[in-house]
Amino acid sequence: MNVLSLWIVILMIEQLREKLNPEKFPNMSGMMRAIVGYFLDEQYTEPEIVEMSVTFDNFVFARIDGDCGYNEFIGSYRDLERNWMNLISIKSLGLTPDEVAYCKQLLETKVKRG
After folding, report:
1. Up-side HSE of residue 33: CA atoms within 13 Å toward CB?
2. Which of 1, 55, 88, 105 is the most buried (most CB within 10 A)?
């Protein structure tokens, strides 16, 4: 990745942090706040999620900062995917097609398989 491309990604992440900031969503659950923070490398909760993993049967577990294992049950991968897609699809947020594509990529890259 060249310097210009890296700079564009950094700017996009900053814009996503602003647009998806959980403070804009008073009814967002604490768990979803933590997930958004994890995906965007931003701490919105205490403690924060530092890793996520999907089991062979498609359940998602998270490792919380300070924990030694994936002890926090998130739910099914399908539910996580649906909730994330619902969030990034809110028209009033004004996400660009590139931002939506990047958010989809975050779901795939930040949640480890196996």
Report:
1. 16
2. 88
Q: How distant, in Å, are the alpha carbons of 37, 44, 94 from that of 20?
A: 9, 11, 10
Rounded to 5°, angle at Cα 21 from 12 and 87: 85
Which positions ≥6 away from 90 have C-beta within 8 Å?
Answer: none
pTM above 0.85, yes or no: yes
Is residue 75 classed as helix, strand or coil in its secondary structure?
Answer: strand
Per-residue tokens: 18 = 């602003």
Looking at the DSSP bridge assignments, the partners of residue 64 are: 49
d(CA 21, CA 23): 5
Whether 72 contacts 49, CB under 8 Å: yes
Spatial contact of 53 and 60, defined as CB atoms under 8 Å apart: yes
Closest residue by Cα to residue 17 from 43, 47, 52? 43
Beta strand residue intervals within the chain, DSSP E: 49-54, 59-64, 72-76, 111-113
pLDDT of residue 16: 98
Average pLDDT score over residue span 64-90: 97
